[in-house]
Write a sequence for this structure.
């Protein structure tokens, strides 16, 4: 649940990075809102960096929209949400690793790859099930998913390592290596 106008504007700004609605296409507002309401709990010390990236997204929002830092600090407080962590990770993937002028901005592609790996791609507003999504996210944060990463953020086809043993950043790197290099 979004509690103030600035949080709503921030939410819309974040979703705009990873989703472009299409006429007569499905809406994922309920999924996005649910992910925004769930605090991201890092499974290990290294994943704390993903939470920090998510929190830094708030400052980027302020800079890009001209909102004063004091307003960001007051109205966007609290822990990093799962949505913030995932959007921030997709942005980092695009801007720091996978940027390709010829391909255009693929931030949304990276985000939806994570949604697909989690198994949440069918959770549009018409099919949304809060219990199912909550269970999926809880299993992801507890690293109770398949060794291939299926059920987590990154699924690989030919695992040479148990993805559950890796922090999110290294899971991402293994996934990128398998799919793009």
């Amino acid at each position: 649940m979004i509690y103030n106008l600035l949080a709503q504007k921030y939410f819309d700004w974040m979703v705009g990075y990873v989703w472009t609605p299409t006429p007569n296409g499905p809406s994922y507002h309920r999924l996005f809102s649910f992910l925004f309401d769930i605090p991201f709990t890092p499974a290990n010390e290294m994943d704390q960096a993903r939470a920090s990236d998510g929190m830094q997204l708030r400052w980027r929002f302020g800079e890009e929209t001209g909102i004063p830092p004091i307003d960001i600090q007051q109205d966007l407080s609290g822990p990093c949400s799962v949505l913030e962590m995932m959007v921030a990770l997709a942005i980092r993937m695009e801007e720091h690793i996978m940027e390709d002028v010829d391909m255009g901005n693929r931030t949304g592609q990276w985000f939806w790859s994570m949604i697909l790996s989690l198994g949440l791609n069918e959770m549009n507003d018409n099919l949304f099930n809060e219990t199912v999504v909550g269970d999926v996210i809880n299993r992801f944060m507890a690293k109770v998913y398949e060794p291939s990463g299926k059920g987590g953020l990154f699924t690989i086809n030919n695992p040479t390592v148990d993805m559950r043993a890796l922090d999110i950043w290294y899971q991402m790197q293994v996934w990128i290596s398998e799919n793009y290099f």
Summary: The chain is about 55% helix and 0% strand. The first helix runs from residue 5 to 18.
